[in-house]
Amino acid sequence: MIVRISGKFVEKKEQAVIINVGGISYEIMTAQTVMDRIDETQDEQGNVNLVIYQYLQINQASALPTLIGFISEVERDFFLQFIKVSGIGPRAAVKALNQPISQITRAIDEGDIKYLKTLSGIGLQRAKEIVAKLQGKVARFGLIQDKDFVRPAVKQEVSNWQQEVLSVLLQLQYKKNEAIDMMDKALLRDQNIKSAEELLNAIYKQKVSV
């Protein structure tokens, strides 16, 4: 069984990376959070080191060996817990883990169904099943330091109302980095926010709940 692959990073594909090991190229499925950080893990020669989960994808015609890659063994361990939830197989889990594991862990422990529904392919019933199966069992994964790699909700090309919120927070004497961090967290928790008023209310609620 393959448990780790080290080799030359070749290219990114949709939900997969290509790694060349001794002239043999492997296609390795990765969650979006791994894909976002793959460049950070390369050494000066462009080599990467991925922890692997291997399984057989079985269909009517064949059984295809499939590799799924992670940055660390701890991330793979969380994945193994996640696929214990009824109805979530390896491929569905890779698709669903499009946010940092530390944030997903927080949502599970807090029973934050609304946040879990923002994961790709996860609906209301599946979100409830995730909480029922994993709540109280995955707290240690909240210590994974992957928050810095979140694709920011507040991008460089922010909308007018996001810029308005940033301006208000700066006027309230918050430092710019602190203000952007509060905006990111609020938008990450509720991706339905569409106005400055809604965002400011969400930031206030998260601040008083700390």
Number of strands: 5
Query: Stretches where pLDDT falls below 50 for ≥5 residues?
Result: 148-157
Average pLDDT level: 87
Number of helices: 9
Strand content: 15-25%
Estimate the global geometry from the Cα principal axes.
globular
Kindly, what is the distance between the CA atoms of the first and last residues, rounded to a whole number of angstroms? 45 Å
Proportion of residues in helical segments: 40-55%
Explain briefly what this protein structure is.
The protein is an alpha+beta fold and 210 residues long.
Task: Give the arrangement of secondary structure elements.
Blueprint: E1 4-13, E2 16-21, E3 24-30, H1 32-41, E4 47-58, E5 63-70, H2 73-82, H3 90-96, H4 101-110, H5 113-116, H6 124-134, H7 160-171, H8 176-189, H9 196-208
Parallel strand pairs: 3-5
Antiparallel strand pairs: 1-2, 1-4, 2-3, 4-5
Helix pairs in contact: 7-8, 7-9, 8-9
Domain DNA helicase Holliday junction RuvA type: 1-56
GO molecular function, one term: four-way junction helicase activity
Keywords: Cytoplasm, DNA damage, DNA repair, DNA-binding
